[in-house]
Amino acid sequence: MSLRNRVALVTVAVAASTGRGHAMARDGARLAIAYRSNKAAAQQTLRQLQTVGADCVAIETDIANPERAEQLVQDGGGPLWARCAGQQRG
Fold this sequence. Notes:
Blueprint: E1 7-11, H1 12-17, H2 20-26, E2 30-35, H3 39-51, E3 55-60, H4 66-75, E4 79-84, E5 87-89
Parallel strand pairs: 1-2, 1-4, 2-3
Antiparallel strand pairs: 4-5
């Protein structure tokens, strides 16, 4: 399935540990990688995804705040899939 021009909002933990970030990037999704405080982990995850050609950014924010998470989704043009703070929606 092509995910071109779709945005996926994921946490650093999900992007780094599950392989979902890589899979979505391979299918053409743009990734917004959210992190709250661990900038080093976010930057490492970002570099790993970029080495496989992912179009991605790391964003420092607290996505446990529903309003902030929703704003990120709107800024990105709407999510394909979001996995944040143990919740899934999309």
